[in-house]
Design a protein that fits this description.
4 domains, six-stranded mixed sheet, eight-stranded mixed sheet, 552 residues
Length: 552
């Protein structure tokens, strides 16, 4: 009798086991922005600074952040980031810094820099993988409390913090947090560098003081331009228009509400009793249906009912835009230009998530007139330095007709000229294309708002550039005329017989006539000009878009 063979599926089943999220990112660190040494150094600093800024703003403290990068030789660097924030409670320190997917913001629908609870713990993981050294954290929550010091590793198999050292110490700071990481990296100035990231951060966070010491021991200070803290965003409930059937079914199972009507009113924003009844009516469902009795087919009907119901847009107080005045201040502080302008669009919505687009422009000055536009992209006040070509912001800028605003532009390329454009998107949930948060997804609603904001600032730029060109042309004409005045004086002397003194008097009279006939030379001031006759030259297509927008 033949021995029965064991099915291969049984052997395969023995090898299958649960994968820890830390183990996954240990092998796929490129997904989080740790693809190469140079980018890894930048990502580490970015995550630490973002955490510090969020903590300070939540505690209503004007942020003062020290960033130090020390060259340890052999492509190893020590990164030290210290803030004056509220500090971290002792028992939470290990989890925040040495456990992936641990945070307080994932379920909150309000604007913040961090969201998934991955960033800083991923930096700790990268440092651990490349140098084997633990992360060193010091934190203090107040004068009457001791500072706590930890040395931490991440147990990648269990995704849990491994405490190497723990102690209480004296620290000459009333409150704040400091993190030190030794990691493998590469430092280089220029685009996509730590220096560029901090400069761009200073532009959109004018309330922040940044003190930066680079690996060459050069200290650069980015002073604050405002004492005004950003408005604290208010947490909101999800909007019905953004809900998907799977999420809706999960919410129906977990809710404590007893009726479908009360469920809709309490679990979503902008849904009152009348709107809830209308949704149920459009979905052909009873308002007193128990949420747990709602089947998959009924959930699909509910989704259709929501789509048929007119529901007002979600509230805008869940987001905290920079504001056009502060954005312009930030540009003036960091970019030497001759003309500045900024605008903030009204709140809009994609997939039920409210968002605001802001654009700032700095033109002229010491900027390169022959090179392409400097494009600064931001999401929730955080610079996006990589994957520019894949971003909705870049697509919107390229598709804007910059020739209408006095710049030269080739098809499918950024315009050329002495100009910096900053585009900021503030949202409760920014739709990034990947976990490394480097580019914004191409949602039509977002692209439309970016284009409208660019056009609004572009019209002001066109007015300034047009006025400047008129003045330059007029000045050139005057120079030509003034060149010939002495010759006219000499000719009159020869024809009429003027004396030398009279010849000089004639030249003065001719110069006076020139001023009188041509008028006083117009001054071009780098203020925000109102729309003038230059707007008439912008083109019928854009004017039609603007008129349509006003009607809406």
């Amino acid at each position: 009798m033949e021995k029965e063979e064991i099915p291969i599926a049984i052997e395969l089943a023995k090898k299958q086991r649960e994968i820890s999220v830390a183990s996954f990112f240990e092998k796929n660190r490129h997904l989080l922005g740790f693809d190469n040494p140079r980018k890894s150094l930048l990502t580490t600093i970015k995550e630490a600074v973002d955490n510090s800024l969020d903590a300070c703003e939540e505690a209503s403290v004007l942020p003062e952040i020290n960033v130090e990068v020390i060259d340890m030789q052999n492509d190893r660097f020590r990164v030290v980031v210290e803030d004056n924030g509220p500090g971290i409670v002792k028992k939470q320190i290990p989890n925040i810094f040495a456990k992936l997917l641990y945070g307080s913001k994932f379920f909150k629908l309000s604007q913040s820099r961090g969201q998934q609870g991955i960033g800083i713990s991923a930096s700790v993981l990268y440092a651990q993988l490349t140098t084997g050294k633990p992360a060193r954290i010091t934190s203090r929550i107040g004068k009457k409390h001791d500072a706590h010091y930890y040395e931490l590793h991440i147990d990648t198999h269990k995704n849990k913090p491994e405490i190497i050292k723990e102690e209480t110490l004296k620290w000459n700071k009333d409150h704040g947090t400091k993190i030190e990481l030794d990691l493998e990296g590469s430092y280089q100035k220029g685009d996509q560098s730590v220096d560029q990231y901090l400069k761009q951060t200073a532009i959109v966070n004018p309330h922040v003081t940044l003190i930066y010491t680079n690996p060459k021991a050069e200290q650069i200070i980015f002073p604050k331009a405002s004492d005004q803290l950003p408005k604290k965003p208010v947490e909101i409930k999800p909007h019905p228009y953004g809900i998907e059937i799977g999420v809706l079914m999960s919410m129906l199972k977990l809710t404590e509400n007893r009726t479908l009507q009360s469920f809709l009113m309490t679990e979503f924003s902008r849904v009152g009793s009348g709107t809830a009844k209308q949704i149920c009516e459009n979905a052909s469902l009873l308002t007193n249906t128990k949420p747990r009795d709602v089947t998959r087919d009924m959930s699909e009907k509910l989704i259709e009912g929501i789509k048929k119901t007119k529901i007002i847009a979600p509230p805008g107080d869940c987001i905290s835009p920079i504001g056009e005045n502060l954005l312009e201040k930030g540009l003036r502080k960091e970019i030497n230009a001759e003309f500045y302008t900024a605008c903030t669009r009204p709140p809009s919505v994609y997939r039920g998530n409210p968002f605001v687009v802001e654009v700032g422009i700095a033109y002229g000055g010491e900027q390169n007139a022959e090179g392409s536009m400097e494009l600064y992209r931001y999401a929730n006040r955080v610079p996006l330095l990589y994957q520019q070509g894949a971003c909705a912001v870049t697509k919107s800028v390229i598709n804007t007709a910059w020739r209408n605003y006095g710049l030269s532009q080739s098809r499918g390329a950024l315009p050329v000229g002495p100009i910096t454009v900053a585009v900021h998107i503030a949202s409760v949930w920014v739709p990034f294309t990947s976990e490394s948060k480097e580019a914004i997804a191409h949602y039509p609603e977002i692209i439309k708002e970016i284009k409208l904001a660019l056009q609004e600032c572009g019209r002001k730029l066109a007015s300034y550039v047009g006025k400047k060109r008129r003045v330059q042309f007029e000045s050139k004409k005057r120079d030509y005329i003034k060149t010939f005045i002495p010759h006219v004086g000499q000719a009159l002397k020869d024809l009429i017989g003027f004396k030398k003194d009279e010849e000089q008097e004639v030249e003065k009279l001719l110069a006076t006539i020139l001023e009188k006939q041509r008028g006083e030379l117009e001054k071009v001031e780098a203020e925000n000009p109102e729309y003038d006759e230059e707007f008439a030259k912008i083109g019928k297509s854009e004017k039609g878009e603007l008129d349509e927008e006003k009607k809406q």
